[in-house]
Design brief:
alpha+beta; 5 strands; 62% helix; 400 residues; Heat Shock Protein 90; five-stranded mixed beta sheet
């Protein structure tokens, strides 16, 4: 619609302006200017209209429009306005060199135009007037071309910025999904594996004394409750981050309690001093785990260091319960400020493959740990060694 309106405006200005010149412009003598209604007047008006319609090709063939109007400009008064607009069109759509050539040709037309229509004026006045008109049109067209290029550049930059913003938003969503998956895996996998071990003991030994069955059922219930509490804490942290609240504050929207306005404090993050409790939970689930904790300054360990160590040990024990049930496992944590912290979890490789009923692995636990350790400036290696053991070996930085 805008293009059609602009084309109609060009044709209307060229045709209307040309007709006005045909009716009012003085000629060299009265007989040279056609009188209204005569064949000469009609022919002049027809040429002016043809020049006006040629302007419709201004976008596709601007140079052609500028050249084809040269001859009608000489012999038809009504073609003068269309010829001037053709110079503006060339300056708008073509480079400076092409514009100067076309404008120069239109300026040279004055030598043929002058004796026919304006010989009653001094030649130098007509020449300078034509030169001024063409110079102004060329400058105006160049400004329009520069403005159009600037707008196109700004539009392109805006589209690129929008595309980059969408890409960054998508990357942020993927990063948040990965983070949620890691947190869920860290929280749920260990507790579920312990529940599976307890339930497996009941399945294998249905003849256990009632007291032991009750004790095992209680362990399953308490482990499930701990898993739900830790899961709730993770979801609360994620909601706090999404809402821009401070971590460690109340968890919004936590079920009916959140609806009632009761603030639920998040559980503290694990530290090195929580490792014995983690190992004891695995022992109660039937795992043969030994812990060697040689960290004299454990209470001074940074919070991030203790959390990473706890998660490394928990993920390693979870993998043992899934893939190497019944094997002896040794957890060794040693180090101090300046020396760093070394976390090693060793277990004997299973003699036979785990039963089909064993919990499936996600395949991302150790990969996620490796990324966490790398972000903390440490290293993590895992895999079988030459002594028939599977080893998870992490080295973490501990600044003085």
């Amino acid at each position: 619609m805008r293009r059609a309106a602009a084309d109609a405006a060009f044709v209307a200005v060229a045709a209307g302006g040309g007709l006005l010149m045909l009716l009012t412009a003085p000629a060299a003598d009265a007989g040279r200017r056609p009188s209204p209604g005569s064949w000469g007047f009609l022919l002049d008006a027809a040429l002016g209209l043809a020049v006006s319609l040629v302007l419709l090709a201004r976008r596709r063939l601007p140079v052609f429009v500028g050249l084809v109007t040269l001859v009608p400009e000489i012999f038809a008064l009504s073609a003068a306005v269309g010829a001037l607009l053709s110079v503006l069109i060339v300056a708008t759509y073509r480079p400076v060199r092409t514009t100067v050539v076309v404008a120069t040709l239109h300026q040279l037309v004055i030598f043929a135009y002058y004796p026919l229509w304006t010989s009653h004026y001094p030649f130098w006045i007509v020449f300078l007037w034509s030169l001024t008109e063409l110079t102004g049109l060329v400058a105006w067209g160049m400004w329009l071309r520069t403005r159009r290029a600037l707008l196109a550049s700004l539009r392109e930059r805006l589209e690129r910025a929008q595309s980059e913003q969408q890409l960054l938003a998508e990357q942020a969503r993927m990063a948040e999904r990965t983070r949620i998956a890691r947190e869920m895996h860290d929280v749920v996998a260990h507790r579920v594996s312990l529940m599976a071990l307890h339930a497996g003991a009941l399945e294998v030994r249905p003849d256990l004394p009632p007291a032991e069955i009750v004790e095992t059922a209680g362990l399953i219930r308490s482990t499930a409750r701990q898993a739900l509490e830790e899961l709730r804490d993770v979801i609360g942290v994620l909601r706090d981050d999404a809402a821009g609240t401070e971590p460690g504050g109340p968890t919004p929207g936590a079920g009916t309690a959140g609806a009632a306005g009761a603030a639920t404090e998040l559980a503290p993050q694990p530290t090195l001093r929580d490792l014995p409790r983690l190992v004891e939970e695995s022992r109660r689930a039937g795992m043969a785990v030994e812990l060697a904790l040689d960290v004299p300054a454990a209470e001074d360990a940074p919070g991030g260091l203790g959390r990473d160590t706890y998660r490394i040990v928990r993920e390693a024990l979870t993998n043992v319960s899934k893939h190497a049930q019944g094997t002896a496992t040794t957890v060794t944590v040693a180090g101090g400020p300046g020396d760093g912290l070394r976390v090693t979890v060793r277990n004997r490789l299973p003699v036979r493959q785990p039963p089909e009923a064993a919990l499936p692995g996600s395949g991302v636990g150790l990969v996620g740990l490796a990324e966490r350790v790398a972000l903390a400036g440490g290293t993590l290696r895992h895999g079988p060694n030459g002594d028939g053991e599977f080893v998870v070996d992490a080295r973490l930085r501990w600044a003085r």
